[in-house]
Design goal:
homotetramer, alpha+beta, Chorismate synthase, AroC fold, 5-stranded antiparallel beta sheet, 8 helices, 27% helix
């Protein structure tokens, strides 16, 4: 279990890194939405390995096939089955990992849980699993654009100790995509690239932060008390491989403010109250204010490093591991479409949920 | 919707701050668990208002009644209905709030969502709703102690800029409960008390951080890919009133480490592999390693402050608000049992879920 | 688990026959619906024991208290907590049942499942549990009347071998309520009354059939493939105590028709296609046609009889049981509001679900 | 939505009759279960079209591919993705159906619900969708055999007015499979074959009843109150194409019995109480007694007939339809593996659910 996300816009992913392929079933997408393979491929290409020298060189085209749920260019309301075949699955490259546990990977924990594990490239715990999320997120993106005018954009705001200066209100997709780092601040992007190159050279790896904004979100999305928008976002983000933290609005920085400094005063807006500031990050009591929803996700440095590490075998004997497989020295650039996908899925879900609330006249 | 949490150990809360009372239904608690009102009351008393001068003076005994699911001192497997009546519900004190929106409260967003709102003391968005969570968490605590030897303990690790120095491996409930701040570092506790007193005096409020540890957790709990243990913890924590951030293990601090610095080497342990360090926070790939699960939750400064604030009326007209109700200048001490409750609920859920995985012989 | 029903209009019931009371939490009811205790009490009174000499004489007023979710006469969108206290719970009357298993009751099976059982009057398996369903169904009734013009009406169409002749298209609530049997065919009602009286006199009990119709249901409700409207109705009905069968439209009688005889020809209607006949029972492919939804539920004869029966003790020893408690010689009259409640819950759920489908322009 | 069934052993199906293929994702299957394509293909072959002259001649091999979740011959605990490509999808054969609604099919209702419909061969409402159920059911079958010794067997007990005489306690798979009708009573089977041939000859179709038994079911499976075993079975069965009714044990026949006639007396058995008779059908209060679970499913005559029928166009104009596609004159023989599949899924689900109840010592 645990392979399904969402309630009204619900996805179920399946597939392993070195099995036949990766797929997802999307249930709950409203009928009559125009949808083509191209809508999906764009985000998949942003997630794809080998797109720049900053990422793993595994050669996967990640071409998606729509198996069901779309007829004559429109969704039918039936579940949408999507499939991406694995092409460059060099399982042999993982033979030396069969009998040991890589540090800070899921090898040991999967064995502890399941007693049987697909050890080829991480199996189910591989970031390849996120193909299904990104493809489903692209459908959510199309839906939200079509019916709600909501758009979601993420970027790399930090790599190791390099911090970017970006305005969430005005940053553009073009600016994000202009650099292989997906950092829209060119000075920071250059420093990040240098840092990543240095880490790779050193057989090491780096972590960082993705910041993400949803703009055009109407007031009223999200649901008390457990399904607060930020709670669902937090779950979505912490379900991403290598993520270790989440905060919304001022987040952890709110801790060093006082109430007077943190509170967002309301002022009269043209269509109703708006907040003069946005330290809340666009949510109050779990429900959107109508302001931009802004949040951050912390990613740890890639667990796979090109250096010798102490570990143990499946028989609990000490051994030294020298990594050989293909990997990213820093997952941040490819994490951006993953973060966006989870945000899109949460927003599509809550947008549809709100429909059942808007039944009786206000 | 959104009032239910968990899959196998599932709670549904109901009730408003100034309605008849607050309740919860717990479904999925295994039968034959010894359970009394005292088991529940202990944690409720830690959450209760008026327990010290640091907290709101609303006078609620918060006595819980077990309405169902327990017979002759043991659970029956039937849903456990719990009820706490509201006693000191001075609705009149909120009359002046009926027609305006308090900054950084859920007043405006609930109106935006529902078009109809119980404005007395926050209604459903009040922290009184957490009574149900804490009572249910106490059942989970009893279950986990009985069947799994898992214990969960939280403490205030930071208030504003005062940071405590606490060892998650050895901190005790007695040390936490020794001070009204629930900070087990006496020096920090004294400084926190002074800071909170000063903020109250100044008509202001403070935020902070609760750190929480689950000890005795076996390897193998949690579920890929969306229901990673840390994903469910993140959702639980971000569903708490006033919470703004969550991280696990090194969390946001992992960002400034390299892979070599962050990876937890495995070493042979007496019963299988163990990690030499615990930067992962006890989870890898969403599944427990057998080490302590350690995480942090950031809380914003209380939105209610005893100072004039700019805001708008329900008719979108500018107005000044001077707070009058009873409130906590810092929610941190009372947030501790809430954080523990959500962690207990997540762990009980995953502990039960693991039962369906352990079916065929290893 | 298993105490929750529905997805968008979702109820969770709790409580035992001889515990503190019976309750339900209704989550998902849209905000702004006018709702009073009277709306609920009417259906509860139809379900109540002691309403006629045909039913058990247990003296319960079954007065419901609305604990949450309603403010100033309207729903708020928050979960609605309802409570009915048990008054006439003569547990002592059940002392002789503590150590044995009543035939065709749930005594043995609950013990087999839970290993711990509230043996007072059936505990959780008592038909008193349906109080929560009937109260929740009354909310669904109000909602469906208000927003959709759907009404649901059931009646006793058969008791033992007495069959009624009733037209589902025109039968009225007044006709159903005119007789204590809830059979709107006066001749059959008289025969049913005689049969029930004779069975009681003989220390025996009778079963029968409730037929139910939903009128005013628009085309398009229900969801392929597992959540067909009739599948959800079937589940709801088979979840009622003492029910043993369900069919929709021609149902089991369709077996002896040919396709030519059974198919419902479409004819042009004023607002689109309509069926000339309704052997389908208002559903095709799990989705409503716009015709009346008509279905039947079979109930077994009451398991409690005033005659000696062979059974075994909890220690697996043969024993003779002579029933003494209060009971209905025929559950059919009181089953009518229960059947209606489950149908109302299913329809409200699917009506709300359809809202997420009707998003893009047709 | 509505494409997912089960809670612990959960399947999600996707795919249309004339799209790329049909698939299913099975989540919750325990790890370490031996599983091969052959385990699945056996039941798929029993469901396959063209297996005898009694069934449609659509030429589909229905070869299944396991895309994920199985490694080195055993399940891993990851979701199992299964795919069957559509081969013989002669969409052209359906061109004449594009603009009209076939009587008693889902054409009109899907249009009413979705406003956009895959009209090729019924699209999602086609019985081809059950491929996913049958494949998933085969996994459940393997699991239940391996861990619980439960076996499930269905047969055709009635076609139109031909009734079979079969003993649920002793009937064998060999006897069922001995005849193309899947009726293990040879005399009845011959009469059924004659009746089906006559109906086909006459351009008509027939309905019937599948009876099904689950043997080896331990006492204690099923969950009060909404998830009674028979409630979940009822939902599963009424979700099958063309099904119109369900009953368990004496079912609708219980109506004409009295309590004395219907009650199942308990007698001491070697390992605890057993019932002397089994009118309950192996369930009491929704939970299994340890006796055989026996139930019936009524299927309507096939809606597609080779005769002219009155219907309307999508523009609501009267038109005459003469059927041309390939179809079964009687679905009963192929319905048997579908009924078994749904029963297997329900039992696997409840068997896993019971694991979370059996936690504390009895």
């Amino acid at each position: 279990m645990g392979n399904t996300f969402g309630t009204q816009f619900r996805i179920s992913t399946w597939g392993e890194s070195h099995g036949a392929g990766i797929g997802v079933v999307v249930d709950g997408c409203p009928p009559r939405l125009p949808l083509t393979v191209d809508d999906l491929q764009h985000d998949l290409d942003r997630r794809r390995p080998g797109q720049s020298r900053l990422t793993t060189q595994r050669g996967e085209a990640d071409q998606v096939e729509i198996l069901s749920g779309v007829f004559e260019g429109r969704t039918t309301g039936a579940p949408i089955g999507l499939l991406v075949r694995n092409d460059d699955a060099r399982s042999g490259a993982y033979d030396h990992l069969k009998d040991l546990y890589r540090p800070s990977h899921a090898d040991f924990t999967y064995d502890a849980k399941y007693g049987h594990r697909d050890w080829r490239g991480g199996g189910r715990s591989s970031a390849r699993e996120t193909i299904g999320r990104v493809a489903a997120g692209a459908i959510a993106r199309r839906l939200l654009a079509e019916v709600a005018g909501i758009d979601v954009l993420g970027w790399v705001s930090r790599v190791h100790d390099v911090m970017a200066d970006v305005d969430p209100g005005s940053v553009t997709l073009e600016a994000v995509e202009a650099d292989a780092t997906r950092c829209p601040d060119p000075t920071a992007a250059a420093a990040m690239t240098a840092a990543i190159d240095a880490a790779r050279h050193d057989g090491d790896s780096l972590g960082g932060i993705v910041t993400c904004v949803a703009r055009g979100v109407p007031a009223g999305l999200g649901a008390p008390v457990f399904d607060r928008l930020e709670a669902d976002l937090a779950k979505g983000m912490l379900s991403l491989p290598a993520s270790k933290g989440f905060d919304v609005g001022a987040g952890f920085d709110a801790v060093s403010m006082t109430g007077r400094q943190h509170n967002d005063a309301f002022v009269p807006g043209p269509d109703g109250p708006v907040t003069a500031t946005n330290r809340s990050g666009g949510v109050q009591g779990g429900i959107t204010t109508g302001g931009d929803v802004v949040f951050r996700v912390a990613f740890k440095p890639t667990a796979t490093i090109a250096s010798a590490q102490d570990t143990v075998t499946v028989d609990n004997e000490a051994v030294s591991l020298e990594a050989r497989g293909r990997h990213d020295p820093c997952v941040l650039p490819r994490a951006v479409p993953m973060v966006e996908a989870m945000a899109l899925l949460v927003l599509a879900d809550h947008w549809l949920r709100q429909r059942t609330t808007d039944v009786l006249p206000h």
